[in-house]
Amino acid sequence: MPTYDYRCDRCERTFEVRQRISEAPLTACDRCGGPIHRLLAPAPFILKGGGWYVTDYPSEGRKKGMEAEKKSGSEAATATSTTSGTDGAASSATSKSGGTSGDASAATASKSPSTTSS
After folding, report:
1. What are the boundaries of each domain within the chain?
2. Which residues are registered as beta bridge partners of 73?
3. What is the pLDDT of residue 115?
4. 62 pLDDT band (50/70/90 cuts)?
5. 112 falls in which pLDDT band (50, 70, 90)?
């Protein structure tokens, strides 16, 4: 049942009354008998679920900006891995090929300079 706000013109009292939608609005104050009128009040409601925030349905410009951020983030990660040196590239290539840690250590050992005594 909805709640309606009423205001009395004579005693200037504001009060709430729970009424059915089908009921006629009240016309007289129950305290002083003066004329009353129904006030406009915002309907209480709760926004649940998705779609109520700016981030839920981004504009085209925001979508392009998010894609650009993803690309620049992946390019930065790629640049970091390629500038780390050949040892890092060899070990990452070995690990990507499904090799075990023993294979990675063997690849690193083969690249290390040999110390020979002459």
Report:
1. 3-39
2. none
3. 53
4. confident
5. very low
Euclidean distance between CA atoms 36 and 24, whole angstroms:
13
Q: What is the pTM of this model?
A: 0.38
What does the alpha-carbon distance between residue 111 and residue 76 come to, in Å, rounded to a whole number? 27
Return d(Cα 9, Cα 35) in angstroms, integer: 6
The residues, ordered by sequence, that sit 6+ positions from 13 with a Cβ below 8 Å of its Cβ are 7, 29, 31, 32
DSSP string covering 54-69, please? TTTS--HHHHHHHHHH
What's the confidence (pLDDT) of residue 61? 81
Positive or negative: CA dihedral 18, 21, 23, 26: positive
Six-digit token string for 108: 């690193």
Element (H, E) at 72: helix 60-82
